[in-house]
Amino acid sequence: MFAAVVAACSGGQQQAxxxxxxxxxxxxxxxxxxxxxxxxxxxxxxARHGLDVDLQALQGSPAALQAxxxxxxxxxxxxxxxxxxxxxxxxxxxxxxxTEMAVGTLRIISGPGKPIRTPADLAGTTVGVPSLGGTSExxxxxxxxxxxxxxxxxxxxxxxxxPGVYDLVGAGHIDAYIAPMDTAVVLQRTHPDxxxxxxxxxxxxxxxxxxxxxxxxxxPAVQDRIRRFLAAVHDAMDFIAxxxxxxxxxxxxxxxxxxxxxxxSDPAVVKAGMDAYVTTWGxxxxxxxxxxxxxxxxxxxxxxxxxxxxxxxxWLQQLGPQQ
Length: 323
Description:
Domain SsuA/THI5-like: 34-243
Order of helices and strands: EHHEHEHEEEHEHEHEEHHHHH
Protein name: SsuA/THI5-like domain-containing protein
CATH architecture of the largest domain: 3-Layer(aba) Sandwich
InterPro entries: NMT1/THI5, SsuA/THI5
Strand content: 15-25%
GO biological process, one term: thiamine biosynthetic process
CATH superfamily of the largest domain: Periplasmic binding protein-like II
Number of domains: 2
């Protein structure tokens, strides 16, 4: 378990006590995808908003959901697909309070011999997925539908997320595989001939949203802490975006002061990766555009993953500074 406790900087004056909030992640925080949280901790944004933030890495979405619903954590970050399934199918008492990536970050990676450049190219292929039934496979299903491809013609193979998955493409065991954006950026650096299809440009669904429970949000004190957490993340996003001119040198330095993030060891990868992530944050940085949420629901319900005719707007209770 990883914990990052943010202490207030002291200038000789007595500091007011910080309010504690626990935020759980579904994977280790040492990834570019969590750059705003790491920068907010290292730069003191959380402390400036009066927060002592405990970032805890759990193993997967089910554990994170249980922590939030059970009250041991106030916030987690999930994909919009799994959030809608949890609420719309399993009636989980969750509310979306904000977003980090308003646009999907998954990529479909293939080789030059049989490139997947459009959704239609997926017909008759074998595609590697990290696991069956997860967000990656659901995203693949949406991209297949967008291409008008018969889903039965696309074979799924569980390949995990190990660095060597691309070798399976070269060996002909699979034609393509789904991977996070970090993986794709690093791969394009080491294998310039790799072909990358941005799933987020093909479908509306795929956002990463901050989620809390309805019961906790009924407490004004908890709601206030979540509001300040999102404000601090927003500040960190603004800092990172402004750091683009330096190639994100200050961002990388801040993160390296506390964390070892392998994908950020190469400045060229940092520049390409952070450029891509900043784009996914959208102009509101921390607030999910309601039209994207409703569009994602239309796609997800159209595929039968959640029932049609529900009111996805009632699952939103956004607390970000752009509200």
